[in-house]
Structure formats: C-alpha cells, structure tokens
Design goal:
The complex is a heterodimer.
Chain A lengths: L2 E7 L1 H13 L5 E4 L11 E6 L3 H10 L6 E4 L2
Antiparallel strand pairs in A: 1-3, 1-4, 2-3
Chain B lengths: L1 E2 L11 H13 L10 H20 L8 E4 L2 H12 L5 E5 L4 H12 L3 E5 L6 H11 L4 E7 L11 H11 L2 E5 L11 H4 L3 E4 L12 E5 L36 H17 L1 H20 L4 E3 L12 E6 L4 H10 L2 E2 L8 H7 L7 E4 L6 H17 L1
Parallel strand pairs in B: 1-11, 3-4, 3-5, 5-6, 6-7
Antiparallel strand pairs in B: 2-8, 7-8, 9-10, 10-12
Helix pairs in contact in B: 1-8, 2-8, 3-4, 9-12
Chain lengths: ~70, ~375
Amino acid sequence: MDKYFINTGTVTKASMARDTLRRNGINTYVLSARGNISAAGCGFGIVVAGGALEKAKALLQTAKIGIMGITRAN
Amino acid sequence: MVYLDNAATGGKKPERVIKAVENALRNHSANPGRSGHKASLGAGNILYQCRKKAAEFFGAESPDTVCFTSGCTAALNMAMKGLLKKGDHLVISSMEHNAVVRPAHALERMGVGLSVAQVVAGDAEATVRAFREAIRPETRVIVCTHSSNVTGEIMPIYHLGRLCRERNIILVVDAAQTAGVIPINMAEMGIHILCAAPHKGLLAPMGLGLLISRVPIPFTVLEGGTGSLSLSPDMPETLPDRIESGTLNLPAVAGLSAALDHLGTVGTEGIYRKELKLIDTAYVGLAKNPKVELYTPRPEEGQHTPVLSFNIKGIPSADTAAALGERGIAVRGGLHCAPFAHRCIGTADRGTVRVSTSYFNTHRDIAYLLAAVNDITKRA
C-alpha cells in the first residue's frame, strides 16, 4: 500500500497534525523528513496511507496546519 | 525550615514533578525536534504534551502558541523587544518588576516612547483610567503584571484586555506571580501574550519560562538552530520555533507537564483559597502587633494573591528577614526587584519583608512566623 509523507516543517506542527488526523480516524505517526534535503531544509512531518491522503490534506487545511510538501514514503 | 518565600520560587515541588524530571534525565535524554530517531521523537513528544496541557490550562488557542524560554524574564524580553520598534509607544504599570522595567528602559533608549500608568491600590477603575490616559496614537503595547510581587494586589487584566481590544493594542501580561495561583484564560481576559514563571505557582522546576502568544512576534531577540527550515539564515516565522533557538530544557518541561497534571488533579481554586487563608492568618496576626507596619488592606479573595509585605518599626527589612532566617524562617527582605512598586507604597528607602505562602504551608508555619516576629519586636 502506498504511503505518503506530509512535511509540516516543525515537530510541533507534525504532532498537531498527528492529533488532528487521529481524532478523525486516520492512522498516522510523526517522522523526520527523509530523502534529499528539501528546499526548506530539515524538518518533520507525518505519514499517511495513500487512501487517506486527500482527506488528510483537507483536515490539515481546515486546522490551518501548513503543508510544506508531500512525497512518497515507501 | 519554614519556607515562606514562594513568590521568589516555589519551595517545595510535588513528588510527581520530581519523578518526571528524574525520568526525563534517565530515560529521555535526547534532543527534541532535531534528530529523527525514536529517542528524539520521544523527547519531542514530551514537549508537545506539555504544550497541549499549557494551552488548555491558560485558554490558549493551540499547542503551537506555547513557547518555552529560559525563564519569565526571557519571555518578557522576547515579547516586548519582539513587538516594539523605534517610534512605537509602550505603556507599563507603576507596579512592574524589573523584568518589565529594565527591558522597557532599554527600548526607550532605542527610541520607543514609554509611559507609566499609575496603579491606584484597590481601585480598578482608576487604574484602568490611568492606562487609558497614557495611550497615544502610536501606542502598540501595554505590559502589566497580573499581580504585584510586593503587595499581592491583582490588576484589572480583564478590563485592560477590553481597553486593548477597543484601541487595537497588544496586551502582554506578566503572570509570574499568578500562573498556577489564580485562574487565567487568555481568550476570555483578552491577553495577547502571557509570560509565566513555571518554578513559582506552577510548582515546576527552575530554568524554564513560558511565552504563550496569540499574535505574531515580528522581531527576534535570540537566533539560532531550531531543527526546522535550516537552509534559511532567518528564524522561522511560526511559533514556537521563532522563539525557541537552541536545545530546550527537557527535564524542566517534563516537570512542568507533571505539575500541570498535579494542578489539574488538586484544582487551582482550592490551592488559592488555602494559600490566601494562610496569608490572611499571617496578616491578622501581624496587624495585632503595634510595632508591625503593613502596606495593604486585609487580603481578599479575587483582589490579592498570597503575598504580603510588612516591616517592624525601626528595623530595616533586610535585618528583619535575617533575624527570621536565624529562627529558621525563609522570607525575603529588600526591594524584591520591584523598585517601582516600592515607590508606590512608600518603601523604596528600606524595602519590606515579604511573606508568600504555598499549598504546602500550614497554619503551624504561620503561627511560628508570628511568634518569631513577636520575639524580634520584643528584643528590638
């Protein structure tokens, strides 16, 4: 199953994103950014299953948690 | 020792706070928000859980508005210097601690206008009027202590919040003496930035401050690594990273987290009533001694925090404090880093002896204090 890494920048924002998604039934966890260093530099984010990606994006937008990038996590 | 210097720092911490600090040092000694390994993420989660609890405790919008600093003084400096620039105007109260007075004067030297609103003891309306009259078109920030660390008088923050909303001014509150002692709800009280000293009424360890902000902070006082946006030479725009450069005091944060659990379990209202009852007993006892001078009316719930100042006629405050120290009682004499407040009550030349209770004090402690004061006055 595809997994996606949603980069939120800071570990605090990642933790808030995790709580927001879990409250809405989406399984997720906090992870440091993988792969090449992004344009923003180091950072943290959360991992979600591909099937939950669109819902996760919408929930984070509603919660005003900025998304700095989305990459495949697997 | 009978410890009655809780306005300086909480003399006794709950057992669960001590255990949380020990657990953090033993089992979570990793740098939070930096590395991606399990230990670092675990440490990051300790910070986050504390941010969540603090946000809820103080009626803040969200966990990311809660910033950890090295202390309340650092938080106040970051708030004041982070908001004001040359040409702006600042209003502070006449009861401020040097943690506000000194950064205010440093800002004045940089071209920020400064006015001092005279607090009228026991008259909230007159105090708010003094603030209103001090406001100019360029006033950007009002900084006010929530309660005097000398007299224990609670300031009319709710009314100042309303005034600031009307005039589009940012209200910064120094809650060093009130956080954990009396309820604070930033949203309801109209507080934009709350600065707190967790080692006092919150019963957490020293070496930690809280800056909780509902507004952006344009200027930074401290720059450095945050573990985020590291390619940029500038500090991140968003809180808490904008404020938090360098490695945080994780054991103290773990202690604060446990302290917030403790306060949630015991209930701050019960704690406040007990502390105020103790200070009231001290006040009534001291008032019976004709050689004792008191500077405030009898403490009242909602009007005072558990702090009182007194002097023994003819004896400098430092000497009385020392004499009490020799009898095993810890109190603080002098100016309490608050010369403005002492000018207000007419004690700038000799200071006062300050008594401040905590949840852990007993009526026996107060009886011991009163007996010791009587003994000192008899020998004077």
